[in-house]
Amino acid sequence: MSCTQLVRELSSVSEQLTEAERRQRNAVATDAATVFFVLVPVSSMAGDSEGEVALFKGQKIAIEQALSRKSC
């Protein structure tokens, strides 16, 4: 990939990471509220974004390393 392509990909992955982190924060807040009232976290039934956050963080690190190796 060219430096331009890597920068575009980094931007895209960063946006996806931000969105996944937002969903994860919302899931944590919802879990805290539902555990207080129902004693069962909603994420245990509906899932959360933990895997997505990890995936996008890994992709972001890989792209940043590629940018560094290419001296972009």
Strand content: under 5%
Order of helices and strands: HHH
Principal-axis shape: elongated
Structure class = mainly alpha
Distance between the termini: 11 Å
> What integer is the average pLDDT?
84
Q: Can you give the helix content as a percent range?
A: over 70%
SS elements, strand count: 0
Q: How many H/I helices? A: 3
Structural domain count: 1
Q: Could you explain the architecture of this structure?
A:
This protein is mostly helical and 72 residues long. The protein has one domain (3-69). It is built from three helices and no strands. It has helices spanning 3-38, 43-46, 50-69. α1 (3-38) runs antiparallel to α3. The longest helix has 36 residues, at 3-38. The radius of gyration is 17 Å and the shape is elongated. The model has no long low-confidence stretch (mean pLDDT 84).
Summarize the model shown:
With 72 residues, the chain is an all-alpha fold. It has helices at residues 3-38, 43-46, 50-69. The protein is 83% helix and 0% strand.
